[in-house]
Amino acid sequence: MTPPMPARTRVAPSPTGDPHVGTAYQAIFDLACARQTGGRFVLRIEDTDQARQVDGSEQQIYDSLAWLGLSPDESPQVGGPFGPYRQSERLPEYAAIAQQLLDAGHAYHCWCTPDRLAELRKQQEASKQADTGYDRLCYGMTRDERAKLPGFSETPVIRMLVPDDPPLTFTDLIRGEVACPSPDDQVILKADGFPTYHLAVVVDDHLMGITHVVRGEEWISSTPKHLLLYGWLGWDLPHFVHMPLLRNTDKSKIAKRKNPAARLMWFRENGYLPEALVNFLSLLAYPPVHEGSDIQTFDELVASFVWGKFATTGPIVDLGKLDWLNGAYIRALSDHELGRRIVAYWDEVSQPLPVDAVEARRIATQAAPIIKERLTTLRDAYPMLDFLLVDDDKLVIEDDASEALPEQTAEILAAAIQALDTLPEDGFTAEAAEAALRASLVDGLGLKPRVAFNPVRTAIAGRKVSPPLFESMAILGKARSLARLQRLRLAA
Fold first, then answer.
1. What is the pTM for the complete model shown?
2. Rounded Cα–Cα distance for residues 464 and 489 (Å)
3. Nearest Cα residue to 184 out of 156, 165, 162
4. CA angle 78-83-84, nearest 5°?
């Protein structure tokens, strides 16, 4: 069997706000294809729409892909032999190609103002005519001839001259043979000298040697314009892959303005593990690597990856499934690694802590085994562990816990203090604390465990429900546990 040729794939987001989750969704499969064939994965920044750019967005793209382990082989940051990798730095190439198309008669200048074009669209909609789009008023005219007519702009755009018989079908690696509607005379170079998507994407993909043009299915109808450009310029066609669009639970297209989970950074902010998110996104519209199991590594995806396995129906982003996957990944972490990630998450989201990083790491690591089963995301850890991090004299006793204290609270806590005080500091383990308290409160005072340990839990955690009591006391240590018990005893 002949091995596949090394693929050059690319993801090409625009820096117009927080990166979309669809960028990661596409990048996973771009990278899988490149890695499987020994090729290269390219990140290109498509910043031709200068008015919509958002400061910091480009850096977020780099950071989010790095967080997910989807770092490119070539990019504006990394560099590479086919740069620049930022479209705003490639304007001479677009201008030269646009002029080549003008000279060959495949494009023409258009001097129509935006107001004139808006009025044209309005008239077409009102008349309900079948053929819409630009009416070619400027085609064949010189500047001086067009200037005599209404709706004239001093600075022209350049439009494609679409023939009467454009190519309307193409082969897609996911969908097979695809039919498209006929295009109109698309603007390819704007009045400000910046290209539109249609010219830039064809020029860049060709000059960067991209073999697989992977993008969302919303670009299917635009592909005939690109086929024309490839043909006019005498360039070989790449493979086209139009991935199914991610959808909300109501089956609408997932968008940042309606769904916070459309923001790639949202997953990081809410404590999802990057490997769990990659696993989750790799299952959208693509079958699991292992039959009967949704847990898979990226390397396993690479080894078995085939474009033809994709479903064409837009997958629904089910966060319930992601929560399950993330919990499974959390439980698979060692206590040391989980503690490290919890503290790193706290630092990342600027969670204020009354202890230094070393102490926070110790507490999180020692608490990992007692909270691991309860965690869905890293965000869940702080509400469970905050009582261990706060200064002993600043622990807040919640109202419902205070109201549930028995009448003999002071007596119970006095006995608990006396029993625990006999334990050595270096022997203050969960097992030792439990044995001492059971002997003193359950056996000694004759109390039921629920009654006996209620005041102790309230003194230690400030709440009625907390992670396992004795393990929490061992994490606090003898001195801090006694200080908290004494504080509530004096207040009871």
1. 0.93
2. 17
3. 162
4. 95
232 phi and psi angles, rounded to 5 deg: -60, -35
Among residues 376, 355, 193, the alpha carbon closest in space to that of 267 is found at: 376
Listed as ranges, residues in the chain with pLDDT below 50 are 1
| pLDDT value at residue 3 | 61
Catalytic residues: 256
- Quote the DSSP letter at residue 170: E
Q: Rounded distance, CA 382 to CA 351, Å? A: 9
How do strand 239-243 and strand 212-216 relate by DSSP bridges? parallel
160-208 pLDDT, tens per residue?
Answer: 999 999 999 999 999 999 999 999 999 999 999 999 999 999 999 999 9
Q: Give per-residue pLDDT as tens, 344-377.
A: 999 999 888 989 999 999 999 999 999 999 999 9
The DSSP bridge pattern shows strands 212-216 and 40-43 to be unpaired
Q: Which amino acid is at 293?
A: S
H or E, element range at 152: strand 152-160
Q: How many CA atoms lie within 13 A of 97 on its CB side?
A: 27
Tokens 């009654």 found at: 451
**In the block, which residue shows the tokens 């409160």?**
441
